[in-house]
Amino acid sequence: MTVLVVTGTGTEIGKTVSTAAVAAAALAHGRSVAVLKPAQTGIAEGEPGDAAEVARLAGAVTLLELARYPEPLAPATAARRAGLPPVRPHEVAEATEKLATEHDLVLVEGAGGLLVRFDETGATLADAARLLGAPVLVVAHAGLGTLNATTLTTEALRARGLECPGVVIGSWPAAADLASRCNVADLPESSGVPLLGAVPQGAPALPPAEFRAQAPGWLAPRLDGTWDPARLAA
């Protein structure tokens, strides 16, 4: 994959740390990596955003933000309230294609879930992925309720003719409950795509060098890792 779009089943589920893990695993394989954040919301000018957090954890990646809005809202709403131009899918596609000419892998990290609105027309990250013809990785939470949310997201991708290589659990709890343990087997069956990794809870607090060393062990070979879901189930 030259371009991989990263979305989530909602907010605060570990999308940024999962993006960092994918970037770190690719870098460990000697690949050059760029990270594009089309719309960063809820961060003031000058403050580090999600792309900067990916670089802090993963290492030497090229970063690009297309727009930044101060209020923690959906991009379309945040842009309107700030009186700033929204991000358009064609702008995301053009910026991604340029980065792809200079890097082995471009990670495009969305804001919130797949169908969060970018602009007043209702355009979404899915529209940008369709313009790019890029696969979309889904980040999900581990516990109760994730089967429904993840399956809705993968069904939305299929309905739009978009490829989903799989699902990554964005924050695997240190003491997994019954629902989380069962979801290791149930997520692939429900969503129709494989489970491609699980990032441990607390991973963002690791020293960056340790994060980079451990990241390949959290991801399946499809994402340049060595992770095996059987280990997690055990």
Automatic annotation (TrEMBL):
Enzyme nomenclature, EC number: 6.3.3.3
Cofactors required: Mg(2+)
Keyword ATP-binding: yes
Keyword annotations of the record: ATP-binding, Biotin biosynthesis, Cytoplasm, Ligase, Magnesium, Metal-binding, Nucleotide-binding
Cellular component GO terms held in the UniProt record: cytosol
Active site: 37
GO molecular function: ATP binding; dethiobiotin synthase activity; magnesium ion binding
Binding site for substrate: 41
InterPro entries: DTB_synth_BioD, P-loop_NTPase
Reactions catalysed: (7R,8S)-7,8-diammoniononanoate + CO2 + ATP = (4R,5S)-dethiobiotin + ADP + phosphate + 3 H(+)
GO biological process, one term: biotin biosynthetic process
Record bears the keyword Metal-binding: yes
Pathway linked to the protein: Cofactor biosynthesis; biotin biosynthesis; biotin from 7,8-diaminononanoate: step 1/2
Quaternary data: Homodimer.
Protein name: ATP-dependent dethiobiotin synthetase BioD
Annotated organism of origin: Streptomyces iranensis
